[in-house]
Every structure is written in C-alpha cells, then in structure tokens.
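Tokens in:
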C-alpha cells in the first residue's frame, strides 16, 4: 500500500468516526440532573437516630412499626399533605421469606396516609415479573387495602440520571416514579446475601433501576455501584422488617430466625450497620466483621450516612 492510499483510508476512517460521534451526541438519551437528596431528618445532637423495637410472637406488627417510627420522630418529619411517597419493598423473587412481611408494608402505608401523603408501593424485581412477585408474596393486596397504588416499575418510563459523586457510575437509568417522588421509604427484610454479605436498605435501592442496570452493577463493581446509586437515590426513611431474619445465606434459601423486631432510621448507612451487627449476633459471628462489608463502608465514604457507632443514637424498646 502506497502512502497516498494509506492517507485516503485514514481520512475516510476519521470521517466515519466523526460522523458516528455526532450521531451519538444527537441520539444519546438526555441525562437528567441528579435527584434531589434531602439530609437526614431523623437526628438528635448531630447523631443519626435509630430505633429497635422488639415485641413477642403475639405482638401486633403494625404496633411494632408505629412504635419504631414514632420513636425517632414520626412520619410527619418527612411527609406532609400533598407529598407523593414511594414505599419501596425489597421483592427479589416470589419467595415470601425473601420479601418483607406484607403487614409491615401496609403499616408504613397507613402511617404515610395519616401524615397526608399519597402512596405508591413500587418495585423492580431482580428475578421474574415484579407484578407476579408482588402479588404472590401478598404485598399487592395488603398495600391496596391500606390505601396505596401498587406499581411494577418495569412498566414505567425510564429516566437517565447523572451521578455527580459516583466513583464507578457517572450516570444511571432509573424510573420516572422514583425520580419524581417527593419522599422515598425503603422497606427491606433483614437478610444475608451471597454477593454483598447483607442486603438491607442500601442494596434495596437496586430495585429502583432496570434489570440491565442491575447487570451492569454486578459486572462493574457491585459494592461501589450500590454506594454510588445511594448518593442520588437515597431513602428518606428505612423501616427494616426483622420479625424474621434470614441468616447464614441469602438472598434466598437462608435459615429464618424469629426476632419479632422492627428497626427504623433516616440514615440508611447507620441502619445497615446496626442491622448487620444484629444479624451477625444471631449467627454467633464477631460483629467486627461488619466493618468489612464493602458497600456499607463505601456509602459512608461518599457521605450517604454514617457507619460510626459513636455517631448513631440507638433507641431500644421492648414491648410487653
């Protein structure tokens, strides 16, 4: 190949590359600015408030939930008349042990409505149909009876959103329902997870993105992606269902242990830290191991919340 032919080919390739770049700029999805994340509303003296309310097997679950939320300041701290509130349960599959108890979700819905908010219970399951899973585990009927709409996020409009503070993710695709809501409440069950050690509030936010984005998280760096996501999709309140906890393994197939406990906090890092400690205690494992849970420490490093026990005020109560 002579020099003239080589330069012609090089010029043609450059032209194609330039055209491709222009086309991409025209066709690429519009990125919305990061969702507004509010500071933790549940604090006292500079510390994150966290409640742990334990009952007995016969204790009414709604009573546990109400007491846990009231102990840190009540639903009125974040919900007022006219607010649109998304309650996000963690529904990975149709396994009822994997999902929060429908009565916990219903109790949260009732508290939101009493504070004046309109409620959407929304989920994008990691496995199978979200509509089927929500129905099968009993959350659809319980939430509707309590006065909420129930939405399969996979039928919702997708939104590209920037992640200004992301380490591994600079943008993420989420859903319009999540992006536009005024208040976001996370309702996970306390349980183990094979890939992330535990799956509580922070990891529950993966159910706010489409399945292809979930795959991207696993392929890039699951723990860091969970932390990055929570800088822009951060729950305003977390209510952890620890009536039964899944120990030893998860997110399905673990050993279920009765705890009769509900936990609540406005800081998802704090509640994941303390809830993980409780899980380790159930298993007889050293609680010092919680320090090694990567997505929790990564989220703390990004300012999502605190994993420093000295900056968490725990309010514990046992109901007779």
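Residues out:
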């Amino acid at each position: 190949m002579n020099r003239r032919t080589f330069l012609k080919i090089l010029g043609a390739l450059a032209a194609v590359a330039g055209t491709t770049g222009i086309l991409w700029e025209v066709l690429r999805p519009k990125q919305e600015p990061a969702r507004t994340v509010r500071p933790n509303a549940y604090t006292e003296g500079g510390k994150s408030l966290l409640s742990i309310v334990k009952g007995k097997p016969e204790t009414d679950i709604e009573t546990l939930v109400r007491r846990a939320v009231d102990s840190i300041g009540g639903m009125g701290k974040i919900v007022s008349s006219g607010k649109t509130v998304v309650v996000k349960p963690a529904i990975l599959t149709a396994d009822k042990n994997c999902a929060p108890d429908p009565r916990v979700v219903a109790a949260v819905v009732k508290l939101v409505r009493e504070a004046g908010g309109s409620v959407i219970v929304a989920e994008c399951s990691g496995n199978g149909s979200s509509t089927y899973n929500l129905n099968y585990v009993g959350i659809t009927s319980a939430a509707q009876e309590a006065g909420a709409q129930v939405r399969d996020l996979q039928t919702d409009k997708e939104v590209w959103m920037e992640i200004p503070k992301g380490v591994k993710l600079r943008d993420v695709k989420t859903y319009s329902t999540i992006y536009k809501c005024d208040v976001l409440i996370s309702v996970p069950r306390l349980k183990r997870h094979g890939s992330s050690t535990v799956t509580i509030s922070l990891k529950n936010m993966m159910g706010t993105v489409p399945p292809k984005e979930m795959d991207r998280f696993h392929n890039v760096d699951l723990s860091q992606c969970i932390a990055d996501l929570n800088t822009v999709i951060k729950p305003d309140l977390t209510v952890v269902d620890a009536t039964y906890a899944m120990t030893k393994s998860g997110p399905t197939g673990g050993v279920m242990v009765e705890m009769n406990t509900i936990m609540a906090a406005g800081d998802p890092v704090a509640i994941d830290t303390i809830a993980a400690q409780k899980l380790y205690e159930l298993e007889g494992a050293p609680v010092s191991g919680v320090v090694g849970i990567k997505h929790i420490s990564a989220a703390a490093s990004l300012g999502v919340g605190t994993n420093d026990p000295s900056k968490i005020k725990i309010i514990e109560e046992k109901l007779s």
